[in-house]
Amino acid sequence: MMHTIDGTQFKQMILHGAAAITLQKQQINDLNVFPVPDGDTGTNMSLTIGAASAELKKSGDSAIGQAAAITAGALLRGARGNSGVILSLLFRGLSKTLKGHDTADGALLAAAMQEGVASAYGAVMKPAEGTVLTVSRLAAKRAVEAAAEQNEVDYVLSEALRVGYEVLAQTTDMNPVLKKAGVVDAGGKGYLVILEGMLASLRGEDIPEVDEDASSKREKADFNSFSAEEITFAFDTVFIVRKSSEHVDLNPLRAYLGGIGDSLVIGEDDEAFKVHVHTNTPGSALNAAQKYGTLELAKIENMRTQQEDLAAGKKAQCVDDLEEDEPPVPAEPEKKYGFLAVCAGDGLAAVFQDLGADGIISGGQTMNPSTESILKEIERVPAQVVFVLPNNKNIIMAAQQCVGLTDKEVVVVPTVTVPQGITAMMAVDPELEQEELLETMTESIKNVSTAQITYAARNSDFGGFAISEGDYLALLDGKLFGTDRDIAVLLEKLAQEAGSRGAEFVTLFSGEDVQEEQAEKAQEIFASHCPDAELSVLPGGQPVYYYIISME
């Protein structure tokens, strides 16, 4: 038995837990009841704790309070999706209790687990039974009881796991949807897999090997699809200049560099500034910058030759003198309000930008952005108050975690679909006070319904529909509306629904796999059922969903 653990042991426990859930993430994804191809609980939880694993690997030996703080901080910034945010909250509470301690015994660990549960419950507006919250709460309750019986860390953790799995099995009956599908809660399963890995570490088991290549395969871009001549400005130029004085006006430099290139970003603090620009004359850029101080470091890469190397199947030559993942220097406020939207697809991004969005976070279904990636974009918005439109229910909590992590004021508008986000942006009146503007934007989304057409990722019996893998699925306001082997049948039914509702405005955003002639046929279907509606069809370019349809 093990009476106490220190920071080094806690670090190994987290590393083991992260490896365990990475190995099982697909099995956890498969527990998601809804058969659309964005059941990503396992992936989100794996990526979230993976962020903590990466940070801990960089750290040395430390007290358990410090190791827990590193873990909680990395989890917070790396949190993806609701499941990832809840996981980060469970460990944030754990870190609160372990703060200032060199070691932890069973009783302290149990108390820390209970504090984690309190943090998670406190952040969820309407906690539902039969979820990871239930599993973690009853597991922590048993941990406290076990510590009173035998104050050994491994005994406490093993008893928490035993009860946790008993409760997990019961989640099937706690939730009608889970019961119908005959599965347990995915988030609860993921949490227990992590705890199981932590216990395995305590027992001296080796960390399982993870095939990073197999677990993170991505489709490769076709670098032969465009030529090097299409690159207007060849040299990707990044450099740092130490300022000649604290009060340096960089506006003339910004104007000059904007005239000789594009993709210009200048970040600065009191002592130095960093420039990123694409240009054909990097020497001119460097010479101009040296009027403002002393050049310290520079990176210049030829994007044309890089493209040629990639097209030939070679590794592109590059230099790594500058880290491109450094936190961005917060943009100075140039206005009161700024707006940031989450979406996937160039067409959708263009719509939000046309409506006044200052920035776009690439993400949505199957690729929930982390809290840190949202925070980085918030920092780049040149405004005092930044309104974030998540446009997905699984991103709202990650966005909310950014509140308090920046000097900017962050306001999360509760948009759960892209059409809601677009409607909210159309309702923006910069003359309103902040609370009134939020109320106006939130109220506007009640007038829009969202339909989506995607495909079934697996066989399922859901909502009275017998679904086969590969079927087309129609969703209406998040609920299953219909399924068929012919996408035209679903478009017809949705068009009839829009017509029966008397929709005045209907917009179809076609996905990346939809050809122009197919989108035109979809438009004809809706026009026949909604003759009086103002009808638009735009290329959204979104993955996963063939059509996203806005009805107002």
Summarize the structure.
This protein is an alpha+beta fold and 552 residues long.
Largest sheet: 6 strands, mixed
Global Rg: 26 Å
Say what oligomer this is. Answer: single chain
Low-confidence stretches: 212-228, 319-325
Compute the average pLDDT. 86
How many strands in all? 18
Number of helices: 20
Beta strand %: 15-25%
The structural class is: alpha+beta
Q: Write out the strand line-up for the largest beta sheet, numbering strands in chain order.
A: 15-14-11-18-16-17
The percent range for helix content is: 40-55%
The 3D shape can be described as globular
**What is the end-to-end distance?**
63 Å
Explain the overall architecture.
With 552 residues, the chain is an alpha+beta fold. Helices cover 47% and strands 19% of the residues. The chain contains 20 helices and 18 strands. The strands form 5 sheets. Strands 15-14-11-18-16-17 form a 6-stranded mixed sheet, sandwiched between helices. The longest helix is centred in the N-terminal third of the chain and has 23 residues. It starts with a strand and ends with a strand.
Helices and strands in order, then pairings?
Blueprint: E1 4-6, H1 7-29, H2 41-58, H3 64-78, H4 81-98, E2 103-105, H5 106-123, H6 132-149, H7 153-174, H8 176-181, H9 186-202, H10 212-215, E3 235-243, H11 251-260, E4 261-268, E5 272-279, H12 282-289, E6 293-302, H13 303-311, E7 335-343, H14 346-354, E8 359-362, H15 371-380, E9 383-389, H16 396-400, E10 409-412, H17 418-426, H18 434-444, E11 449-455, E12 460-462, E13 465-467, E14 472-476, E15 479-484, H19 487-500, E16 505-510, H20 516-529, E17 534-539, E18 547-551
